Amino acid sequence: MVVRVLDAVLDLLVPPRCAGCGGRGALVCPRCAVELSAPPRRHAPEAPPEGLPECWAAAGYDGVARRVLIAYKERGRTALGTALGSCLAGAMAHLEADGPLVLVPVPSTRRSRRAKGHDPVRRIAEVAARRLRAGGAQVTVAPVLRPARKVADQSGLTSAQRAVNLAGAFTSKAVPRGRVVLVDDVVTTGATLAEAARALRAAGAETAYAVTVAATRKRVPVMRHARRSQNR
User: Fold this and answer.
1) Which pLDDT tens digit goes with each residue over 131-180?
2) 231 inside domain
3) Cα–Cα distance between 135 and 98 in angstroms, integer?
């Protein structure tokens, strides 16, 4: 906690280091900002869970995007929420969306919110909404999802295990009228977004699509060449 507070104070008092490359002069330098503003790509997990909405991500969860997200979520550099929210807004601007948009952020756990002092995904959703409204879009943020129970740490779980771990994890209040867009920071197997979409359906709302800052890359199998026998 102390380290996160010190990082936030240093961002205000001294020329900041870019969270993407470490260079001096900006929270996110122009070169790294370009990587965060690329057109979004559709993310289709290898074994998509039932109910997963059409999902788009602005970047892969590696390189600049991964370093910026870690600095934002784990090191207390909350000012990076502006760059990440702009990243989300840019991704949404590439997608067709007629009529008012309702951004529904995937909530952090109560324990995580207490530790960080804020809800990271909600913060970037609000930044994205402001950016989109500045461009003339009708956008609201509806933090209607709530954790319904505790879940285990997702790290190291398979797709099937994540789906079981998250089943019934969210509940939702009524959702304002409009095209609902689920917002999260990272998508891996899609289990979290599928469960969030289920909770929204139970509250009477269909999710048009989901948008995240980053998506984990699919693993590409490595072809191993057979070793040549030493005996000829």
Assistant:
1) 999 999 999 999 999 988 877 677 776 777 777 767 777 899 999 999 99
2) no
3) 14
